[in-house]
């Protein structure tokens, strides 16, 4: 049976955590089964017990998943068996919820918090940026220590400083990127120069337990108390996709737009504007409001009061909030899906249902919106005649990103 510390020490700093685990004194639970690895010999220090023969454990530099989880982002290459991991997940989350009234927040880097380009890939119209790094603190040269050839420039997303400070009052913050470790650490330094916000919780590609997928098992947290901000839901393992708030991608540089096939028009860098000039405000300001709402509901909502905090599930809060966005509306699609695709399997159809609206294939008086590829379809004409909303599909995408019904007039059908 798992032993739980009643009042846990502060685990939300990786150095504290390692110290805490190493001391292992004055606790109700036993951490003698931890595996600290001696960096010189690659052998376990005395007391390590990972439950497998030593030769198998340290045949390589890695500890395989079968004999525990290797938390590469924690100093001393801490390898923990599954029981200890479970205990730490529970304790860390319980401590956060009860003693700090915080949830966990996992942040992706590229296209979520910032945008990076190789200097070599900058366009002639972006050259002026190379002289702006002194005056614009959201624009920085980056030199990756391990890879001298990597000369980069990074643009931080508008509103990032306020976002990080305010979000860190409600959440224990971690970075999780599929970039390499050296890059992740450099970005963490840019975002959090004083190491006050992330406290060493910087997870990179090599820490993942799955190739090319992110998974919450490397975070010392219960999945039920984690919110993720990422520009891609699909990069997460299916089990963790309900934790994700999908962000609209932040593209500042030309190379970033090109990589995603967005070659129509000039990028922000060349227009000498930023997301906040186009978006009706910084997107991070919008998502901060959403996070505040989620936090308030999680800790205060009457319907959740019957549960112990530790048993609450923030994924349910996300679902409930999303269902409110288009609740009561009925939507018909017109020429939006390819003819060979069954309508109710299309991602847009599912997105509308997640937003709380119902979908239909036929028009009838209960329909409130026609989402159409153009204004000349039969259903589009019906919408105009009947005084229903007629919008293009982007209305759904933007409503989904903003978690708020968008003004229909901004999404006309042409
Ligand atoms: Mg990303």
From TrEMBL:
Main location: nucleus
GO biological process annotation, one example: response to salt stress
Recorded catalytic activity of this chain's protein: O-phospho-L-seryl-[protein] + H2O = L-seryl-[protein] + phosphate; O-phospho-L-threonyl-[protein] + H2O = L-threonyl-[protein] + phosphate
A Pfam family the protein falls into: BRCT
EC number: 3.1.3.16
Keywords: Hydrolase, Metal-binding, Nucleus, Repressor, RNA-binding, Transcription, Transcription regulation
Cofactor or coenzyme needed: Mg(2+); Mn(2+); Co(2+)
Any Gene Ontology CC annotation: nucleus
Molecular-function GO terms, alphabetical: metal ion binding; RNA binding; RNA polymerase II CTD heptapeptide repeat phosphatase activity
Locations listed in the record: Nucleus
Segments forming domain FCP1 homology: 98-272
Keyword Acyltransferase: no
Enzyme category, top tier: hydrolase
Domain BRCT per the UniProt entry, residue ranges: 321-413
Purpose: This promotes the activity of RNA polymerase II.
Subunit description: Interacts with RAP74.
PANTHER family attached to this UniProt entry: RNA POLYMERASE II CTD PHOSPHATASE (PTHR23081), RNA POLYMERASE II SUBUNIT A C-TERMINAL DOMAIN PHOSPHATASE (PTHR23081:SF36)
Name listed for the protein in its UniProt record: RNA polymerase II C-terminal domain phosphatase-like
Origin species: Rosa chinensis (China rose)
